[in-house]
Hints:
Layout: H1 10-23, H2 29-41, H3 50-54, E1 60-61, H4 62-94, H5 111-144, H6 160-163, E2 168-169, H7 213-216, H8 219-235
Helix pairs in contact: 2-4, 2-5
Amino acid sequence: xxxxxxxPWKAYAQLARNHLDQVLMTTHPVIRALNILWHQLYNDLVxxxxxxxxxxxxxxNAEQTYKFVQESCDTIKDLLINDWLPRxxxxxxxxxxxxxxxIPMTGAYGGRAGVLFRCVHALMSHHLECLITRSLxxxxxxxxxxxxxxxxxxxxxxxxxxxxRPLMTLIVSVVGAHFDNPTAAxxxxxxxxxxxxxxxxxxxxxxxxxxxxxxxxGLEQVSVFVFSIKNLYSFH
Length: 236
């Protein structure tokens, strides 16, 4: 048997442990039961399930994606309000014997029972914060997997980049009037075409098209040209 002398910091460590046990109540049965309930039933829950976007028959457009995110948030909200909160309330009621003695008989303050319920509030808020953080990280990782596009150095039909479905369909439309060859008459009065170059009457037209060979040549030149072609054809 070995007898050790007391260390000088043992009393301070015991006081700190007792203080944490009284203030945080991490070892209280109610706190432990609520923590086990969350980790067994709701710890793997995410708000937006990206698998629905990837496994759909057609890629969603921006409006459909926004609607899907809103519906997912409403579904998770309904699950937490109608399933998670009643379970927590029932657990607090069933385990009343573990905390009813903490309620003071007299006094305006809640005593240690008030500390316990503040710990319950902090724990449930922490669970919701973890749910939101996990959902955002999951959605962010899904979007980041598309940052490199579908570029591959060597073509391979079995490459994962070519087999995966696009995350979202982007529809682009032209807003306003569109003209292939706009003229001054197509523009509104308040939108005038700037006169960068002033044209003179004797300037050459930039849209001048050279006429065909036979139209440019004279009658005699055409006859000589046809005669030369015939001789060339006869020679071959």
